[in-house]
Amino acid sequence: MKTPPVCNYEGSDYQQSFWDQGGRQYEDLAEAIALRQLLPTSGNLMLELGAGAGRNTQRYKGFRQVVVLDYSNTQLEQAKARLGSGSEYIYVAADIYRLPFKNALFDGATMIRTLHHMRAPELALSRIERALAPGAVFVLEYANKLNLKSIGRYLLGKQQWNPFSHEQVEFVELNFDFHPAHIRKIVTNLGLMVTETRTVSHFRIGFLKRLFPARFLAAVDGFIQPTGKFWQLTPSVFLCLKKPGTKPASNEDLRQPLDIFCCPDCGGALTGEDELLRCTACDQAWSASDGIFDFRQPV
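and the corresponding structure tokens:
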């Protein structure tokens, strides 16, 4: 199945260089506040899309089981080293455009700092919507082209692309900024309800981060975040989306791989052992190594 190109962090030290040593404690704390306010306190099965090295995964402890998904196998190896190999985590290497999950499965999902790599956001979000159970909550973060810095640069003639236009802009290969109206149109066309909007990273400015402690900036950011209901002028916007319907009753048993997976190419049921899953419809096989299920390419 031909899909849009994927931004692959294979072999990257992104967690260490960007987060641990990149001076982004404030942004991390501000995002933690947004997630804490938007996500349910409990749930059964959570899907974390673009999980990377598991920076946010432990913030979903209210869910009994978390599917940790990323395209990069090395990012998932780092996540597994951080989180462990317990049955509460299922590690999946997959393309968001080709999700290997049964329909109406997850009662919670997040996609943080990932949509900005999607050339076809409508297709990616439609795949996610299909995997959500009725009543599911989906927290989506996107990079906002209508932020104050972009507006200022455009008005001063230092930036060619127009932050007020609704089309997405690719400022670096496979790195996109989106207009809030464009994203809201996509999600509403998919039938998802926007229940809350939060603006995040109000103080993503070098001199402010040097001047004030990260926890102080994050606390002030958290206080201001609900103003996203009225305007979105920050570089990062969080949407709390809900799929219409009634949330299913909680399943007391942890899910097994064959309970959640299907063939990412044809949607057929899978059979087999944890090390090799085979599609009963198209006969393609998908492997697992060191506890990571790999649905990027068939065996």
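(Above: one complete record from the training split.) The mean pLDDT is 96.
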